[in-house]
Specification:
Keywords: 4Fe-4S, Cobalamin, Cobalt, Cytoplasm, Iron, Iron-sulfur, Metal-binding, Oxidoreductase, Queuosine biosynthesis, tRNA processing. The chain is of the alpha+beta class and 368 residues long. It folds into two domains: 164 residues, 3-Layer(aba) Sandwich (NADH Oxidase); 152 residues, no CATH class. The protein is 36% helix and 11% strand. It is built from 15 helices and ten strands. The strands form four sheets. The protein has a four-stranded antiparallel beta sheet, sandwiched between helices. A hairpin with a 5-residue loop joins strand 5 and strand 6. The longest helix is centred in the middle third of the chain and has 20 residues. It is elongated. The N terminus is likely disordered.
Length: 368
């Protein structure tokens, strides 16, 4: 269903106990596998100012969609007319079955994939559950206006989640929950139901700046200020062209995303493994070697990454990222042979990064 101004009042709605309904929604959300739900209003003026300042400094890089939609990103009632409240939910994703993140990062021969991307595409998982939550609400109150989002539209989801009491935005700009850390996905139901709102979460970062200090490419340029152009997640996922040479060494063996700022965060000592089977690592992507993954042709890449978030970057960026990681790995004949096997790749982007990687192992001879 899509909200419309006409959906604001439904027959019999004046008899609904919205306080009790809000409690029920949180219970139903937990029954559907969400760890928490909260309710926020639509006032994001302070967050809009922060967004505009960030965009004004061009810290979003090539993510032009962040500046699109004429301000609707920070104005839910304009994005979906008729919106009165936003039901914000979170779902844990830490894959307890995966190889230890630190172990993989410390092995230059292995490929590190951000923990959120090891299993099924979270967009599909959360969107389906949000739809079920909306259906359960409709069973209780009758037809109502709603629209579900999961990182799929211009929505300031972290700001809304903070207002809904799900956590606070940390110095690394990720949302942190005091009892469960930050390894979770967010989703939203925009609704025309006048539900009571929850108290926003307070910030508990204190004087800690572990996330700032650990960032391999110094992308967190100040507390709560991320220069996406330096962020490894941006470089390996959002950037479609050449990765700046000055940042390639810092990428290490991270071929899809980066988790360092979350791995170091002390609040994640409270995080718990996800119970969702959909987030279980697929195709041993938590433990594969760089050379193994570099061998995939496009057909193999598409087959193995089907249904995962990884597929969105495409085979060319996949090879680009792995070439950089191979350039950062320990020198061996196997590494050299793997890189040389792609030295004549049809893509100029791939060839450029392969030649750079070969140059790391053969200083002064980038045609090795």
């Amino acid at each position: 269903m899509t909200l419309s101004p006409k959906s604001n009042i439904s027959p019999g709605r004046d008899s609904i106990d919205f306080v009790q309904l809000a409690r029920d929604i949180k219970t139903w959300a937990r029954d559907l596998g969400f760890q928490q739900a909260g309710v926020a209003d639509t006032d994001l003026d302070k967050d809009e100012a922060h967004l505009l300042s960030w965009l004004g400094e061009n810290l979003h890089g090539e993510m032009n969609y962040m500046a699109a939609h004429d301000g609707k990103r920070s104005r839910p009632q304009e994005l979906v007319p008729g919106t009165l409240r936003v039901i914000s939910v979170r779902m844990d994703y830490w894959p307890g079955q995966a190889d230890q993140a630190d172990t993989v990062l410390d092995d230059p021969a292995r490929a590190y994939v951000s923990r959120y991307a090891l299993g099924r595409d979270y967009h599909k998982v959360l969107r389906k559950r949000l739809q079920k939550l909306a259906e359960r609400i409709a069973e209780q109150v009758g037809p109502f206006g709603f629209r579900a989002f999961t990182d799929s539209a211009p929505v300031l989801e972290k700001a809304l989640a903070q207002k809904a009491g799900l956590g606070w935005i940390g110095k690394h700009t990720n949302l942190i929950n005091r009892r469960e850390g930050s390894w979770f996905f967010l989703g939203e139901l925009f609704t025309d139901l006048p539900l009571p709102v929850d108290d926003p979460s307070e910030n508990h970062c204190g004087s800690c700046q572990a996330c700032i200090d650990i960032c391999p490419t110094q992308a967190i340029i100040a507390p709560y200020r991320l220069d996406a152009r330096r962020c490894i997640s941006y470089l390996t996922i959002e950037l479609h062209g050449s990765i700046p040479e000055a940042l390639r060494k810092g990428i290490g063996n991270r071929i899809y995303g980066c988790d360092d700022c979350q791995l170091i965060c002390p609040w994640n000592r409270f995080s718990r493994p996800s119970e969702e089977s959909d987030f279980t690592p697929r195709h041993r992507l938590d433990s594969r070697t760089l050379i193994d993954l570099f061998k995939w042709d496009e057909a193999e890449f598409l087959r193995v990454t089907e249904g995962t978030a990884i597929r969105r970057i495409g085979h060319i960026s996949w090879l680009r990222n792995i070439a950089v990681a191979l350039g950062n790995s320990s020198r061996s004949e196997a590494v050299i042979e793997a890189l040389q096997s792609r030295s004549n790749h049809p893509s100029e982007l791939v060839r450029e990064h392969v030649q750079w990687a070969l140059g790391q192992h053969n200083p002064g001879d980038k045609t090795a």
